[in-house]
Amino acid sequence: MKKPKGELHTLKTKFDAGLIESLWSENGELMYIIKDGLDLNEYALLAKQILESEGDIAHDFTGKVTNESKNEFARFEYRSGWFLDGLAEGEIE
Q1: How wide is the angle at C-alpha 27 spanned by C-alphas 23 and 33, nearest 5°?
Q2: Is 69 helix (H, G, I), strand (E, B) or coil?
Q3: Which residues are within 8 A (CB) of 50 and not within 5 positions of it... i.e. 6 or more apart?
Q4: H or E stretch including 13?
Q5: Are 43 and 29 in contact (CB under 8 A)?
Q6: Rounded-to-integer distance, Cα 84 and Cα 4, Å
Q7: Which one of 7, 44, 61, 93 is separated from 1 by 20 to 30 angstroms, measured CA to CA?
Q8: pLDDT 10s digit of each residue in the chain, 93 long?
Q9: Rounded CA separation 62/50 (Å)
């Protein structure tokens, strides 16, 4: 779901303030590393909202947010919303 430009900017500013690095794994999983002490579930929700608002990635995937110490993590489900996704599975005719 698209967010208004101002709201999206606010979310991105907050997210970027805590972000250390983003990585793609070999199996296509996106992982964000954030500063220790931040709420992983909050950042997982922020990541999902930002990605889905931008809509740049055409496939669905599970992402992960972990802390700098890499001893905790939270997952999020990204849904692209691209209308062509269902064509391959026969969902759209």
Answers
A1: 25
A2: coil
A3: 8, 11, 12, 15
A4: helix 5-18
A5: no
A6: 24
A7: 93
A8: 566 778 899 999 999 999 999 999 888 789 999 999 999 999 999 999 999 998 888 888 999 999 999 999 999 999 887 655 455 555 544
A9: 14
